[in-house]
Amino acid sequence: MYCIVFHHRLDVTYVDLYLIHHPKPGRNVESYKAMMKLKEQGLIKSIGVSNFGVNHLKEMEKAGLPTPAVNQIELNPYWQLEDIVNYCKEKGIALMGYCPMFQGQKNDDPILTEMASRYEKTVPQLLIRWSVQRNYITIPKSTKPERILENAKVFDFTINDKDMRTLNSMPTEQCIKPLANMTECPWKG
After folding, report:
1. Which CATH number fits the domain that encloses residue 48?
2. Which residues in the chain come in under a pLDDT of 70?
């Protein structure tokens, strides 16, 4: 019922991608099966998950659920979640990274500012490019048209291997603190 109302309000015949926002103990299997029915009806083209850890993805598989098309997680040079990234790659799950620019909190980082200046780019562009080069679906957020245009100008340069190694070895820090343990919360179906 919810999805029918959702489609009506959006005035569309289908939704391209529908995600479970985060693992909710006791509701994951039920929610995913409901999404599968909507996909069978043609109301959803692809279904996926968000903030699911390896334990959740393995439990979905044990429950006999099809592999999600996407796992949306925080991904940036400071929060790389290599265990989840590697598992998703192994299973063919596309990785969608939110907070690629660390919500602007790293725009003054001396390593990033120096590196961005060598490429004649902004720090946000450098961070988006890092994500693109890691083959993540990158979803930077901005409400300002000029920033949206700037964020799209990341396909005219490549970060060299040395700089990628530097970015790949940044200290671990999560941007979205309230989600700190979401990818590690217990499954419970």
Report:
1. 3.20.20.100
2. 1-8, 177-189
